[in-house]
Specification:
mainly alpha, Rna Polymerase Sigma Factor, Chain: A, 2 domains, 7 helices, about 0% strand, DNA binding, sigma factor, transcription regulation, sigma factor activity, RNA_pol_sigma-70_dom
């Protein structure tokens, strides 16, 4: 039991990071991680040690997030007035602008692409582990990543890598 809890504890920072990237809200992310940990600990008997605890926890977190999104769609999205920018606010530093532009572009991705991109780019998971968490074939993961990266390049105006550009 303590070995299981130790493994869970080592995953908490990565779960928080992934949840914050998915929700873009620190409070919602913390609630999501808490729900994930509560569910994982209360249902630890369902964990089959055929793979790492980390992958199982990410799967639990991802399923909880998807359920919350479905519930939110039924209720509608409230407007957070604190996030509405004031028109007279001076522009932040260029680096912050680029980061905010990238974050907004990631938010516009379809959920399947966003989930895949964040597991690979943010968490640095191996492709095989990310595919297992998402319960998709490796080829599907690669396809989603390719589409996500292409959409981000288009949204941010970033050119393709030199060896991938088409010559006219």
């Amino acid at each position: 039991m303590s070995d299981f809890l130790d493994q869970v504890e080592t995953c908490v920072p990565a779960l928080r990071r992934y949840a914050r990237a998915l929700t873009r809200n620190a409070d919602l992310a913390d609630d999501l991680v808490q729900d994930c940990l509560e569910r994982a600990i209360s249902r630890r008997g369902l964990f089959r040690p055929t793979g790492p605890v980390r992958a199982w926890l990410f799967t639990v977190l991802l399923n909880l997030h998807r359920n919350q999104l479905r519930q939110a769609q039924r209720r509608g999205q409230p407007v957070d007035f604190d996030r509405v920018p004031e028109p007279s606010t001076p522009a932040p530093q260029p680096g912050h602008i680029a980061l905010a532009e990238t974050a907004r572009a990631i938010d516009t991705l379809p959920l399947e692409q966003k989930e895949a991109l964040l597991l690979i780019a943010l968490e640095g998971l191996p492709y095989a582990e990310a595919a297992a968490i998402l319960k998709i074939p490796l080829g599907t993961l690669m396809s989603r990543l390719g589409r996500a990266r292409h959409a981000l390049r288009l949204a941010t105006g970033t050119p393709a890598e030199p060896h991938l550009r088409t010559v006219k």
